[in-house]
Structure prediction request, 507 residues.
Amino acid sequence: MKKNKLKIITILLAIILIATISIFGIYKKMQNRMENIVKDYTYSMELKGARNVRLVASEGTKEIIKDAQGNIIESATEEEIEQNGYTKEEQKINEETVLTKENYQRVKEIIEKRLENLAVDEYSIAVDEQTGDILIKIPENNNTDTVVGNLNTAGVFKIVDSKTNEVLLDGNDIKLSNVLYSTDSLSNGQTGTYVYLNIEFTKSSAEKINQISKDYKTIEETNTQNTTEENSTQENTTTEENQQADQNQVAENTNTEANQTNVTSEQASTQENTQEEQEQKQVKLLIDDTTLMETSFDEEITTGKMQLSIGQVATDQETLEENVQRATNIATLLDSGNMPIVYEVEDNKYIISDITTETLKYVEIGFIILIILIFLILAIKYKALGILGGFSIIGFVSLLTLVIRYTNVVISIESIFAIILSIALNIIIVKTIIKNVEKSENVKKDIYIAYGKTLLKMIPICIFSIIACFINWVPINSFGMVMFWGFVLMTVYNFAITNTLIIEQKK
Prediction:
């Protein structure tokens, strides 16, 4: 008897603790203030508000350089312009020929791909096909400014010769790009994580990057001292032989000195040529004419894949996150393609939702009042079993709210209905269990039969929830995710907690 009571009391205390954490949180002192370390809910745009960004096609001009034949020169110094007779002209950033409905839609597709690659769960994009203006709505969070910075970037990628600026490869040669990680032990005993930008080139461009890696291979340092010593030894030998052949002939000595001078000149010329041959050739990786890096290749690229190290090796979480974010931003630009139209950010505003935080608090208080009422009804009707059933329901609701927070389920109006439905289904399960064992002789058997039958009736709801989880639309997805986790939790929780409380009480 005492053992049964101890088990019931332990479970009830655990439920009270979980409920307290769910409602009030856990507070820890951080930077001279108390902060709740329990994760907050992730709200949808309709509940929290959204960042509204308006993009407009640029109407500005840019300066271009042309040669005598009218060909555009990628880059030239003032001295080169004067020497070669180049001319400077003003050109519209967006010519009339590119401002088409097809290109507006293409820009929309590129932005959608970038948002997906940057893991933006919820967004809306509207395009004005007459003006080309694009209105984008995205959730407001810590990454919003980073996302906005990637919306209107052209993303023009080039690999060029560092000296001549000759374009060797461009964005059309890229098949895909992504981020890779590598963890290794460092000399100081710490574990470091390397972040790489992986660029995979198309099949037709794989040979190009292979040839580039050969042409721009890193030159190993060579020691020319042995060659110099050899030449010097040969000189001395030649000189000694000439001197021994006829030491008294001044003319021959003079000729010997002349020969030595010629040999020295030849050595200098050879060293000069060696330096020219050994001069390191490098390539520049550019995005929108901004140098990402300047490098040569240590090894030949035979797989058609190029991996670039991003940032320094990370030994802490903050550095790792910075490197990953930087690599992800670059990969997103390369993977989504070039924008056919250059856009500018005209508006960048946060619009507050009509549903305020205060309104959501009232909803939360309403939930608490509802659960208390259900607890009282069960206690009055079923007495001890009802009280234990009520505590079980409180524990379920508390755990469900914590699971929703830590599984990053988006709270929308639809998901709030899903929470209410999950609680209602759990109440039905608890009530069914209590009713079937209230006057039962074989409590354990009857409780599991009643529990199993109730769960079987809910299988269609479970199937719908799983399907809804794969629909990429926040209202349906959030509803499905809440129902899925609610069903999983009520299955495990009631089996482990509710059944145990009722069985121990009946004993």
User: Anything to note?
Assistant: The chain has 14 helices and 18 strands.
